[in-house]
Specification:
- The chain has helices at residues 7-18, 40-49, 69-74, 79-82, 96-109, 150-210, 216-247, 250-254, 257-272, 290-311, 340-343, 349-359, 383-386; strands at residues 5-6, 34-35, 38-39, 54-59, 64-67, 113-119, 127-135, 141-148, 275-279, 315-323, 326-333, 364-369, 375-382.
- It has 390 residues and is α+β, with helices and mostly antiparallel strands.
- Helix 6 packs antiparallel against helix 7 (216-247) and helix 9 runs parallel beside helix 10 (290-311).
């Protein structure tokens, strides 16, 4: 067996023998060419010895042959300690069977394999390493690249935790905004709406008094002014009702999602001139989760806004299907079709908002289109969210 040693010294002779002859492209043992005042084999040595990952060779008995400093660091040892050691002795007890299986498969199947192991550390918490192994041409040893992936796992775990917190925060902000919309809509309807209605009654009273005027000219002028005032008040009432409905449709709370969508489709068709058809559940029952009803309504509302602005469509269809797995909401138009660049644009806050609304209930959101063949928005909501448990 070879004496265990750092990979650099053996690599120097190997690289010198394998360098191509620049004159005819053949392999030659001539003195290596120099680049920037250093021999190419020396550059190879630097590459391996300074690599942040570990490189090592292991024979059929599992003993370490060649290795670089990165491998020694990974296993928490110096060069003298790791020399000639059994690889299985350097990992945690739980990982020894995995190492044995990994090496047996490597030498038996002679193909590239990957294995994850736990390595004891001085801090007490085991480090996770990923081993990627291949077998030499003569089949007597294997080459292993060892990477410490603990930091990557910790970062991934932290990222997932942060994303979950941001999603909770986003859901809370959406909920607060919906509460504010509901309060404002109620204030407009119950407060300002009632005041305007009272003014309408006052104007009617004034009109009856004006009709008693003796002077015909004065009566005519006053009635004209009263009618104009009545017209302005009626327009203000219509604006209040429309604004209140846009903030929070009363039908959404009183009758449920599908009647609210039908009303929104009618308003969309009136404003845009685009035909909009709603195909809800047959004999649909109201969703048990009011928050989900609001989320689906807002998704449809945003989708219709995007269609009116960008799609150049003549027909929109809104449909929903229910199954044991949950429900699927689709909004399909026959417009120009959204491009892949547009659908993945990180600055498209409307699409991001729709996606987050779906995710807040454990659902999925997707949008796809084809040139001149329209676009399709699909929202999948799991059954548990329909029952009020997102």
């Amino acid at each position: 067996m070879k004496n265990a040693k750092y990979l650099g010294s053996e690599l120097l002779s190997f690289a010198a023998a394998k360098l191509p002859d620049e004159r005819n492209g053949t392999k030659a043992r001539a003195a290596p060419s120099r680049r920037a005042g250093r021999t190419l084999p020396t550059r190879y040595i630097d590459l391996f010895e300074r690599a942040p990952v570990g490189y090592l060779t292991v024979d059929r008995r599992g003993r370490i042959g060649l290795f670089n400093p990165g491998a020694a660091r990974l296993f928490g040892m110096d060069g003298a300690s790791i020399a000639g050691r059994l690889l299985g002795k350097l990992v945690s007890a739980e990982s020894r069977s995995r190492i044995a299986t990994f090496l047996a498969q490597l030498f038996g199947e002679r193909r590239r394999l990957i294995c994850k192991i736990e390595v004891p550390s001085k801090e007490g918490q085991p480090e996770t390493a990923e081993l990627v192994g291949t077998v030499s041409e003569d089949g007597n040893e294997c080459y292993i690249v060892a990477t410490n992936i603990s930091a990557r796992r910790r970062n991934t775990k932290e990222m997932k935790r942060s994303q979950a917190e941001l999603r909770k925060l986003s859901a809370r902000l959406v909920a607060v905004r919906e509460e504010e919309r509901t309060a404002l809509a109620r204030e407009l309807h119950d407060g300002l709406g009632q005041m305007l209605t009272a003014l309408t009654l006052d104007i009617a009273w004034l009109q009856r008094r004006i009709e008693r005027f003796v002077d015909p000219e004065k009566r005519k002028e006053s009635l004209a002014r009263a009618r104009e005032l009545r017209k302005n008040i009626d327009e203000a009432i219509a604006i209040v009702r429309r604004t209140s409905s846009e903030l929070r449709p009363a039908s959404l709370e009183l009758m449920g999602l599908w009647p609210a969508l039908e009303g929104e489709a009618a308003r969309f068709a009136s404003r845009s001139g685009v035909k909009c058809v709603v195909r809800p559940f047959a004999q649909a029952a109201r969703l048990q989760n009011p928050g989900l009803s609001v989320a689906l309504f807002r998704i449809v509302q945003e989708a219709l806004t995007n269609i009116a602005r960008h799609a150049k469509a003549s027909l929109v269809e809104i449909a929903c299907e229910e199954s044991a797995a949950g429900c699927k909401l689709t909004i399909v138009d026959d417009g120009r079709g959204i491009s892949e660049v547009e659908s993945s644009d990180p600055n498209s806050l409307g699409l991001i908002g729709m996606r987050e609304r779906a995710r807040s209930f454990g659902g999925e959101f997707s949008i796809a289109g084809a040139p001149d063949s329209g676009s399709r928005v699909t929202v999948l909501i799991p059954a548990k969210a329909l029952r009020g448990t997102p």
